[in-house]
Amino acid sequence: MPAYEFPGGIYPPERKTHSNQAPLQAAPLPALVTLPLKQHAGNAATPCVAVGDDVKVGSLIAQRNGMISAHLHASISGTITHISNQAITIEADGHDSWQTLPPLDWRTDSPEKLLERLDSGGLAGLGGAGFPTYIKAQVAEHHPIDTLVVNAAECEPYITADDLILRSYPNDVLEGAQLIARLCGAQRIIIGIEDNKPEAISALKQALPQIQHPATIVLKVIETRYPSGGERQLIKKVLDRDVPSGGLPADIGALCHNPGTLLAALHAVRDGKPLVERIVTLTGETISAPGNYWVRLGTPVGTLLNSVGLMPDRLHQVIVGGPMMGTPLTTLNSPVTKTTNCLIAASVTELPPAPMESPCIRCGACEHVCPAQLLPQQLHWYARAESDSTLAKLNLFDCIECGACSYVCPSFIPLVEDYRLAKQRIRLKQIETAKSEHAKHRFEFRQARLAREEAEKQARRQARLAQHQKPAGGSTGNHATPEVDLRSLRIAQAAAKAAVKKAEKVLARAAEQDPKQRFDDLETQLATAQENLKAADARLAKARASTTQKETP
Amino acid sequence: MSMMHASQVGAAPSTAHLMRWVIAATLPGIGAMTFYFGLGVVSNVLLAGLFALVAEALILILRQRPVRPALGDSSALLTGVLLGACLPPASPWWLIAVGVFAAIVVAKQLYGGLGHNPFNPAMVGYALLLVSFPTYMTLWSPPQSFSAETLFNETLWAQVIGTLPPTKLDALSGATPLDAFKHKGQAVLASEFWASQPLPEGTLSAWRNVALAWLAGGLVLIIKRIISWHIPVAMLGSMTLIAALFYAGDPSHFASPLFHLLTGATLFGAFFIATDPVSAATSKRAKLIYGAGIGTLVIIIRTLGGYPDAVAFAVLLMNLCVPLLDIYTVPRPNGHSKTADKSMPEGPL
After folding, report:
1. What is the per-residue pLDDT across A250-300, written as a single tens digit (0 to 9) for each?
2. DSSP-assigned letters across all residues of A368-414
3. Taking each helix axis from N to C terminus, what angle separates B93-100 and B75-86, rounded to the nearest 10 degrees?
4. Nearest neighbour of B8 by CB, restricted to A242, A352, A395
5. In this complex, do B228 and A364 lie within 8 Å of one another by their Cβ atoms?
6. Residues of B near A (CB-CB distance < 8 A)?
């Protein structure tokens, strides 16, 4: 099938053969794991275990907090030894006993059940942003989706995790895709994969004919060019659709998922396995057994790299993610999380520190490679000048931070760094300006909570009254009033329900648009709507109880 | 900062690398000029380059900025070389020094150094010299007139002491083809003018070959992706078009497009001057407009203005327009609809 073009892009050295030669293996079980409470976009999870508790693999240890958040499960069996407001530490007992959920069938079980499983399995996008999967799967409620795009481009140098996943579990990934396609109502699945993964492509080609139901699956092999794995770039490439600025793929009927997420989704549904392990590419010149490994979440990076033959004297830096968009680790004690797709243990000759920055000569090389067709060099001037309104006009927030501009810059200007800082500054400013608004929302939440508590109290009292009802002979009140009341209460309840739905939609949208921002305010507004709904429910229950009470005699 | 950097994987060139490539690409042009106009061209270029490095170093010391990285990027050397290549052979040393001072100190460093100068430094230097010392700046000898060894020595000596050899002045005051054509007078038709053999034998072909040598160097830069094609193509295209309009209107008084392309600083300017990234427009669309503007101005000034050649003035005038061009040619990013996009800037940023 023909592929369409996105503008710009670069051809960095791939360095993938380093890690894609060895077959997929399991990393040794760690003796200790540290599970951060926030491994996903949105709020950190709330611990629901205590120090000293014994847990099995898959035991729930922290609960989702708010809508944009994810459950967290123990990744080894053992004892909880420490709980901080950042992470939960578990010491292994060496048994590796599991606690799984009952298996479901994605073909026959109800969508509600499947969605609930994606939620209770703690699934988050394994590609990078860690967006809660159950929210993304519900997108069909707000937008008609026709195509599920499986993002197997894996365009960053070094990383081969998706490559190995597709070679090792082609059927499972395709079934996972069917599962998500069923939930979001897509009739078509397109797998976008770069042509530098011939073995994964042939594995998919073999698996494809058996798994063409209910959605049709199409394989699209695309040219290897960074950043074809960017969500917008891949959708342009395989569907020739432009995701609107500030919009979502869902706005144009597409949904994008990474093969690892689809595999994890299938495992959660079919096998009842919560997200407790993932496939990580371990690569770089300073480890002796590079390759892809099944790694338990929370495994310390140092332990993990040592188990694959780290040569510490040659190690210069460890990068989480790819060399283009990844971040260097400051300590080897950091754990593997749901979003860790690659660890590069690089020597100094492999990924040396950036040369000294020199002045921009306005050469325009950055503009030629920008896949979003922005003006990176203008953004650079205005970002350094902190001219935020101009940055907005130059569409700073359309930048996907792919790093192509920094890569080609002859003056070695860390352009993406500038943009990230500018975005961060603008986000903080927005929070600052909306502070009074936020305070108002928190006050509204408090009011709603008090009203709900009051309404529930009255409902309980009314229920009690109704239970030991006395023959209320003296009831001479107007009979029409309670009925009118009931009707208006029912309308109020429906309105409250709609308000909750709307708040959910707004929050989900905002979170998907910019998973890095903070959603406290929107979560507060959602909680307010939920309190209002509960209060409306209570009032309705109370009114019902009082009518029955009045009508019984 | 973990980004894999260009220089580290050998994919993209550094600023110094770019500058050195441009310097290397001037060699065919300078070589051809030397062949036709003598070693005075080489001494011009060497002197201008030397002065440029010295001027850059001194002004950086005065500005209390690090000297070594700035000299290491070769941008000052390039400015010197380009300015030197514009001057009549064996120009007096002080003329070169004044031009370099205007280019490096005034046009470049007083505006903030590399990357911050709104005007092309070499052209500021050239324009200043042309306006201030027109006698010296128009002393182009007829090609291959340096047959006598004595003249050659005297010329270089004149450069050193800063005067012109008075006895040979008439031998030096040859006109360039553009000059000659400009001053042919209204009464003389173009055909009559050419029939009268207004220039010494071989002048026209010498200038043409020099232009073609600059073209060769420019093509190397485009092939090596040191410069983009947008500005040269737009500039040469618009020159051809405008010159053709004039020529079609009155071939007896206006020169043919080919004459405009192959004489004067046209090809040198298109590939080596107008493409200076710092003072040129940035987006692709803006570069096309910028190049077309230069081409149009060159023909208009050559044809209707007071100067025989006009690349320097055209470039400087279009330098003035760059901020405006950059503001009004912001490309439409992905995901912005083609029609009535409210988020696109409508006025100045």
Report:
1. 889 999 999 999 999 999 999 999 999 999 999 999 999 999 999 999 999
2. HH-TT---HHHHHHHHHTT-HHHHHHTTGGG-----HHHHH-TT---
3. 130
4. A352
5. yes
6. 1-9, 11-15, 17-18, 69, 73, 75, 113-116, 228, 277-278, 280, 282-284, 287, 326, 330-337, 343, 345, 349
- What is the number of residues in chain A? 553
Q: Which runs of consecutive H residues, i.e. helices, occur in A434-479? A: 435-467
Residues of A in contact with B334 (CB under 8 A): 6-7, 232, 236, 242-243, 245, 371-373, 398
pLDDT in the model for residue B173: 54
Same domain, A81 and A151: yes
Given an 8 Å threshold on Cβ–Cβ distance, is B334 in contact with A6? yes
Q: What is chain B's pLDDT, residue by residue, as a tens digit (349 residues)?
A: 344 433 344 456 788 889 999 999 999 999 999 988 888 899 999 999 999 999 999 999 999 988 888 888 899 999 999 999 999 888 899 999 999 999 999 999 999 999 899 999 999 999 999 999 988 887 777 776 555 444 556 667 777 777 765 545 555 455 678 877 877 777 777 777 777 777 777 788 888 999 999 999 999 999 998 899 999 999 999 999 999 999 999 888 888 999 999 988 999 999 999 999 999 998 889 999 999 999 999 999 998 888 888 899 999 999 999 999 988 888 778 777 665 444 444 444 4
Task: State whether residue A347 sits within 8 Å of chain B by CB.
Answer: no
Chain B's closest residue to A14, CA to CA, is B9
Residue after which a domain boundary falls, among A206, A236, A270: A270
Percent of chain A past pLDDT 90, that is, above it, reads 56
Count of structural domains, chain A: 4
d(CA B40, CA B58): 27
Residues of A in contact with B283 (CB under 8 A): 364, 367, 375
List CB contacts of A161: < 8 A, sequence separation 6 or more: A154, A260, A279, A280, A281, A292, A341, A342
State whether A425 and A439 are in the same domain: no
User: Are A126 and A192 in the same domain?
Assistant: yes
Nearest Cα to A506, choosing from A526, A490, A489, A486? A526
Q: Which residues of B touch A381 (CB under 8 A)?
A: none
Regarding whether A426 and A386 lie in a shared domain, the answer is yes
Name the token pair of A397.
Answer: 């927030």
Q: Does A244 touch chain B (CB under 8 A)?
A: yes
Query: Which residue, of A300, A321, A347, is where some domain finishes?
Result: A347
- Please indicate if any CB of chain B lies within 8 Å of the CB of A115: no
Please state, in angstroms and rounded to a whole number, the distance separating the CA atoms of residues B137 and B87. Answer: 7
For residue A190, being part of any structural domain is answered with yes
A:118-177 residues touching chain B, CB 8 A cutoff: 157
* Beta carbons of A351 and B2 less than 8 Å apart: yes
